[in-house]
Design a protein that fits this description.
2 domains; 13 strands; 11 helices; Lambda Exonuclease, Chain A; alpha/beta; 39% helix; 6-stranded mixed beta sheet
């Protein structure tokens, strides 16, 4: 991947990215890849030499890595930090780097540090539960020790004290530990098998020059087009509808002084966060349809 520095950041930032410390240790797939879109994983693999990323877009990733390093100094005697585990399932070598394992009398508690925005804490991602349960599967498979709990330790980069005092759902401190549901060993194994099947199909398609499986709406962070019923000149919507027909009915019911505002749908990840969108036919077809 080619690194750029379009905003002329200090060279030290570029050097950090040029000297990566991450490795999946020879595994076929990592835990984070396993929960990612198979299409994206394969497009990254196929186009690695053509991908481009600016250092400014990696600042929070650098910050997160630094936080991990600092928190290593806070470990206790029963803490194990930054351990990468490997296990094999259905012919695939799977690995995961676990930020923190805390040994207790009943087993091991697994925690993962994440540097995130407050919105992510208030709208927890399904991927967090999936990733932590893959880590739990790795721990129990490799160490034969039960996992007693899972948690995300969220470091909230945009935390605001005033927001915490005025909004009920806003985190009350810049760090919040979020307890994650622990699946059974069977549930974890079934989930991993399901994901491996999807990635196996995508890999086969890539190697035989077949069409890659499409990203799902969830993987694209897709928002559907909606129709807002708003008072003329107003800011907030009185009602949100998800079809033109429902919006027309709602407009008739509220009477005069209101109008319909169309809020176009979007694929947020594709638009703003996907590194491989320039190589993705699914994204190009979607954009062509919107332009038409």
């Amino acid at each position: 991947m080619k690194l750029t520095n379009k905003h002329n950041l200090p060279e030290t930032f570029m050097n950090v990215l040029r000297r990566p410390t991450y490795t999946k240790g020879g595994a076929n797939i990592s835990a984070t890849e396993l929960i990612n879109s198979p299409r994206i994983v394969q497009l990254k693999r196929l186009n690695e030499e053509h991908l481009e990323e600016d250092v400014a877009d990696r600042i929070w990733a650098i910050f997160g890595t630094a936080i991990h390093a600092v928190l290593e100094h806070g470990k206790d005697a029963n803490h194990l930090v930054e351990e990468r585990l490997h296990a094999v399932l259905d012919g695939w070598s799977i690995s995961g780097a676990i930020d923190l394992q805390v040994t207790n009398k009943n087993g091991i508690h697994v925690a993962d540090y994440k540097t995130v925005g407050a919105w992510s804490v208030m709208n927890q991602k399904a991927e967090w539960e999936q990733q932590l349960n893959i880590y739990a599967w790795l721990v129990e498979t490799v160490k034969k020790v039960p996992v007693t709990g899972l948690s995300i330790v969220a470091i909230i980069r945009d935390w605001k004290r005033r927001e915490s005092e005025t909004k009920d759902t806003y985190p009350n401190a810049p760090v919040k530990e979020i307890q994650i549901t622990v699946w059974s060993y069977e549930e974890r194994t079934n989930f991993i098998r399901q994901q491996l099947k999807l990635h196996s199909e995508a890999l086969l398609a890539a190697e035989t020059n077949e069409e890659l499986p499409q990203c799902t709406p969830a993987e694209m962070w897709e928002k559907s087009t909606s129709w807002a019923i708003k008072k003329v000149g107003g800011v907030r919507a009185k009602q949100i509808c998800y079809s033109k027909e429902d919006a027309d009915i709602a407009l008739e019911q509220v009477g005069k002084g209101y109008a319909i505002e169309v809020r176009e749908g979007e694929r947020t990840r594709c638009q703003n966060y996907c590194q491989v969108r320039d190589f993705c036919g699914q994204w190009k077809d979607y954009n062509s349809g919107r332009n038409e």
